[in-house]
Specification:
The protein is α+β, with helices and mostly antiparallel strands. It is built from 11 helices and 15 strands. The strands form 2 sheets. Strands 1, 2, 3, 4, 5, 6, 7 and 9 form an 8-stranded mixed beta sheet that branches. A 7-stranded mixed beta sheet has the order 8-15-10-14-11-12-13. The relative contact order is 0.14.
Length: about 400
Amino acid sequence: MIQNITNVKGIKCWGAHTGVKSMRRDLAIIYSEVPCAAAACFTQNKVQAEPVKLSIKHMKDNRAQVIVCNAGNANACTGEQGRLGAEAMANTVAEELKIPVEDVIVASTGLIGEPFPTDDIVKGIKENIHKLSNTAKAGSFTANAILTTDTFPKEGFLEFDCDGTKVALAGMAKGSGMIHPNMATMLAFVVTDINIDEKLLDEVLKYCVDRTFNMITVDGDTSTNDMVAVLANGLAGNKKIKAKSDPNYQLFREKLMQLLTHLAKLIISDGEGASKFIEYKVTKARTESNARTLVKAISDSTLVKTAMFGRDPNWGRIIAACGNAGVPFDYTKADLYIGDNSNLVQVLKSGTPANYDKAYIKKLLRDSHIRIVLELHKGSEESTGWGSDLTTDYVMFNSVYTT
């Protein structure tokens, strides 16, 4: 049995084709039957799309009831016409569902700088909002309706026990290129029936996003439209989580981390033109923040990514990236390992080149899943991130993206 966001109590959705995209569904609506605690993380790009600006305004009270998203047009750099278009999306949904407009989160994805097709999308909302459903088919349609250059939908679902109460948690994401979130084009929408204080929900989402979506990269470009939003409607009926000291707060954070990690990895596995999924891990660091910074420096290095594409064990590029990360880094204490899912080979030991078989590492790097592990021997903290290689297919695809 397919399990998706429609397996969460009180959630209905639909994904439709409005004509903005020629072949794919391009309008997604996710609706909770009751108002929700809500939280969201948005792009830190100084150029923000109109739906991001509007949703930031609507999310000030950490309450929402519906998410509406169009694909095929980012509604970014569109001026007054785009602002009015984003507002029209929210107003139309609110009017049709008879809810406050402030309870509508708006998202868009697609080309930047194209006039926003407000009339087509508003018409599509009016024609499809009555189709909202809690069937698995509706969930599948919705996950497909938020895609742009993606080759497959990205979904996740899990259930867990919360003091004898079954809680459901589900989500969907999109992203393939322009992936370098800083809260690519990257969107993720999560729903749950857990009962939790909205301020705690906001806090736990930021914690998890920093360690999942903010630890992935395909091309180093942060989109104008990045958004991760979560709705928690409380219909599971668990005792409301009101404090971080509540063991169920830690439980929920663990489960949300699990779901977002799953979705983040799916995005990397669908990186534009990518031939490899690469996991980067920095261990034995003085602080988690330093470890995260080093992971990002390595994973975002063009030279590292091209080396992985060429199956070249040029580990000097990894060390050089760390030295340019802007945090303390003593390579003379570091150990470095490179390999595939099953085997790791040490290439650096306490800052000195290790004795290794370069031909054997090149063989390991043929695998589609690569691992790079850096041990700093400075403390007990660690961080993990994920990325893809940089291929000729990526260059070709993005050289003609709009033409």
